[in-house]
Amino acid sequence: MKTQRIAVIGGVAAGTAAAVAVRTADPNAEVVLFEAGRHISYSACEMPHYLGGEIESLEELISYTPEAFGRERGIEVRPQTRVTEIDPQKGVLTSEEITGGSLSSNSFDKFILATGARAIRPDMPGADAENVFVLRNLDDAESMRLFIKDTELHHVVVAGAGFVGLEVAEALCREGLRVTIIEPGFGPLHDHMDQEISDEISAILNRNGITLRREGLVSLVINPDGTVVAVETSVGERIGCQMVVLCMGTRPETDLAVACGIRIGDSGGIRTDSGMRTNLPNVWACGDCSEVRRIIDQKSVISPLSLTAFHTGRTAGRNAGRRGTSGRAVFDGVSGAQALRLFEREVAFVGLSLKDARKSGLPAMSVDIRHVTKSSNLAPEVDILVRLVFNSKSGRIYGAQMVGAQGTALRVNVLVALIRQKQDVSALYNLDLVYAPPFSPRLDPLLVVARQAMHAVAENRILG
Ligand SMILES: Cc1cc2nc3c(=O)[nH]c(=O)nc-3n(C[C@H](O)[C@H](O)[C@H](O)COP(=O)(O)OP(=O)(O)OC[C@H]3O[C@@H](n4cnc5c(N)ncnc54)[C@H](O)[C@@H]3O)c2cc1C
User: Mean pLDDT of all residues in the chain?
Assistant: First the structure.
């Protein structure tokens, strides 16, 4: 049988997972991984902790160098090589070496797009100034860290209060810098959380000395030397600063896909089937550049998360590598669980918020409880706020938001499992969760919130 040649484009979470899965599915395949950057296979999620000095060196974030990955996995890795065009019908890929600029064309039978996403930089003067940063890859992290070390900084503005914005703000604050976040929405994490939970997060920022301003970024004020000295906000205020970090979200990197006629979904990501195959028969897509199904409402969404990249990469790689028709891998969707540490608190989210569930037309309601994460006799300040979102008639769980002390974030994993199984609030209440005083109160907060939700559903049934 002819040896198949498979190109993987992009070498971080999705691309490396896909390349390894191809190799497992077809040990004889020739796999070539193209990566525009210098690094492959690293932990982007730990970059804020490197910025904040909790992780000393950039090398600690790297799982494999290109050489080690190639050697250990039997994959040809071409770092610093940008793929400029693919022609899936003819089976041709054109690439350009970043250093030197030499172009080459190679033949492949199949292609896997793992091109990720790019950080949004607003189209405004000063957005590419030397003291204005985004945090997307290791080069960004390294240049930010060097700038922080080498510059006399007093005040930093972070534009955007999503997960990355909050992590960056916390990291800079740990470095002893004064930080202001500007966020035009109703508050932190407003794409995920309901207002009341977002307010709780605002209070954590406030307690830890971070100023949060509910204003948008309108322009950057530039010095004659080209550096940005202030940001101008939507209420006409000028906030002086020596550094700006733009954390305004990401956009799927789909240029290569669009150029060769691959279909893009409404979310802006590459549309695929459940096996991560695009509309072209010999092209798969995975990771932040592709859409996935949200389990709750079957909507196609972008899920720019590390494990989504890993799972979709594995699925794409297995399917691209397999021969014949058997053993097709399927990616069955995401629950959307995310968490972050914010100073002494933990914040976690899964599924849909109340406002988003209602926006999707679901008959949703919610209950909130305040409880403790462990025996308060053993530790002070163990409070937790939990909001559970569910179907007002059937009790099916749609999502949860939590803010609280240590022990908060991983509780969301229980709900991940239940949401995937389309379970209701009584299934949550009936779980025999761990009880041990150092880890939980006698009745876990998840059981307490489930009990309240069951009452609410019962009341709703009587009234309705
Ligand atoms: C600061 C930060 C913190 C995060 N924290 C978390 C977290 O706590 N938990 C979590 O689950 N997720 C987190 N994430 C998200 C997670 O890192 C991403 O979902 C994951 O990296 C996506 O992997 P990917 O391989 O799809 O895309 P990327 O990491 O974007 O990699 C895509 C690669 O493709 C390359 N590429 C693109 N086009 C070409 C081309 N034409 N030719 C060659 N190469 C190309 C790019 O250079 C890039 O290196 C975080 C992300 C950031 C930035």
Answer: 96
